[in-house]
From TrEMBL, chain A:
InterPro entries: ABC_transp_permease, BCAA_transport_permease
Protein family: Belongs to the binding-protein-dependent transport system permease family. LivHM subfamily.
Keyword ATP-binding tagged: no
Pfam families recorded: BPD_transp_2 (PF02653)
Protein name per UniProt: ABC transporter permease
Organism: Bradyrhizobium macuxiense
Keywords, in A-Z order: Amino-acid transport, Cell membrane, Membrane, Transmembrane, Transmembrane helix, Transport
Positions of transmembrane segments: 12-35, 42-58, 64-83, 95-120, 140-160, 181-202, 222-248, 269-294
From TrEMBL, chain B:
CDD domains noted in UniProt: TM_PBP1_LivM_like (cd06581)
Name of the protein in question: ABC transporter permease
A Gene Ontology cellular-component term: plasma membrane
Gene Ontology MF terms in the entry: branched-chain amino acid transmembrane transporter activity
UniProt xrefs under Pfam families: BPD_transp_2
Keyword Transmembrane among UniProt keywords: yes
Amino acid sequence: MYLVVEQLLNGLQFGLLLFLLAAGLTLVFGIMDFVNLAHGSLYMMGAYFAATFVAWTGSFVLGALLALGATLLLGIVLEYVALRHLYGRDHLDQVLATFGLILFFNDAVRLIWGPAGLALPLPPWLTVPVQIIPGVYYPAYRLLIITVALVVAALLYLVVMRTRVGMLIRAGASNREMIGALGINIKLLFTLVFGLGAALAGLAGLMQAPILTVQIGMGENILILAFVIIVIGGIGSIRGAFLAALFVGIIDTMGRAFLPDLLRKVLSGAAASTAAPAISSMLIYLLMAIVLVVRPEGLFPAAKR
Amino acid sequence: MMPKLNAPNAVAALLCAALVLLPVYSAVTGNIFILTLFTRIVIFALAAASLNLIMGYGGMMSFGHAAYLGVGGYAVGILAAEGIGSGFIQWPVALAVSALFALVIGALSLRTRGVYFIMITLAFAQMAYYVASGLSRYGGDDGLTIYKRSDFAGLINLSDRNQFYYLCLVCLFGGLYLIWRIVNSRFGLVVQGVRSNEQRMQAIGFHANRYRLVCFVIAGTICGLAGALLANNTDFVSPAVMYWTRSGDLMVMVILGGMGSLFGPVIGAIIYLVLEELLSQFTEYSGIILGPVLLLIVLFARGGIMGLLGRMRRA
């Protein structure tokens, strides 16, 4: 029972992290109609920046904040130098260009930080387990991730639904030409949204960094998961991304935690331990395929253009 | 139909001649490396050409095309591991399984359009990737070593470098000829018509998705053949063949060379793989150059290399 609670929380934590990544992706995708494969690279850069700045400053919080700023800046520069010329182009061109960026970032990271992964140690106050319900302890750091992600999700919701900028963002998602015609500086809005997406990806990366090792290619697997989430949720829909992210996070974690034992009942031990991770990874793609076959526009399609 | 003499066709003709004469060059200079490199290039050119059939002519942006490389490869590898070494069984099975796989994926994926199609094909390829890494009997994550190449009863010896190269080249030319015939047939014209205006084709009575699906299956089958060749070339097949970045590589080759031109993918494969090889010789960090080059090509060279050549004549 405790194990189930713990794994559910892990699933929630992973799902919220995925949401941070997917939110940026779905905003950029939904509003600018831009497929950004390099989003995973921004996630990776967030983690590398955090590992560097934390070692530099000696403070986890300060390092994380610096890393967040650095990713934001990187996103804005990237948008300004290269990506803004690709808006309105074919999706395929965007896929190719951002695929090139992945190659670039992977090797740039290898050049700067070396091929071996980095570790981002946690400060002692974050490593203590916290008693959440009597008898159940949960790592403080994971609770922190859950809290931060929930706060960011709430802020994002408030910004998008309750502020003028959010109104422009939503207007941009439903009709780009029209808000341009109304005299809104669409270029600036797009740069802003892209920077926001980059910062969210960086935040996800730097928060995940202490749990996994910081390594090259860490953004690629998770990028595909984020794409799966926005496709399941409906492109451009933050609410859809939120629900789909939780769904995917929990399915993935629970599958990894409990499938091996379940499979061991029908298969031999060795076969079960190789088949289980494969099957739990597949579950997500299966889910996406089913959703797309039944509802080709995702579960919560954003307003029609 | 006599091909016109213009820059793209001249380049294509020169290229074919160079590919045919390459083993001679390799034998004269004793440069074996170039032959092994180009064997790989020819195989990837076949895979890219098959992707071009659906992407360039059919307008179907599949981001999971590497899955067929894996399916074809695993068909050969698994049969070899089970003691069936005859190519006369292995290869037809590889083609049939690839076709079946493409039929299932195509039938489901073609319900979606645009970005959703890109994503759903990607999802299916990733599923195939995870299935392969779950096959503990056949190596799982580590992949499957093929101890003996496909046996064609003495007709052709796949372990001979030159014979294998020419087999790959024959497959490539055969594949290109097939694609050329398809594209210029009534069927191909319907598929291209559907790409440019689906509603209109529906309105004049063509069942658009049926044509699309057949095209999708043909492309998958050709790529399955490339997979069987690739498995024989490396004597090894692993899930990594199907990873999404591999599908990305194939897409890059097609777009680099020029989507919707017959020889574009061949040129794309040559440039991409040679560039990768050259860069890796003087720097470990080839991506730092290759990545921005891709970006620049997208920004400034629309229509790929073939597009540039086509414009050259008019300029």
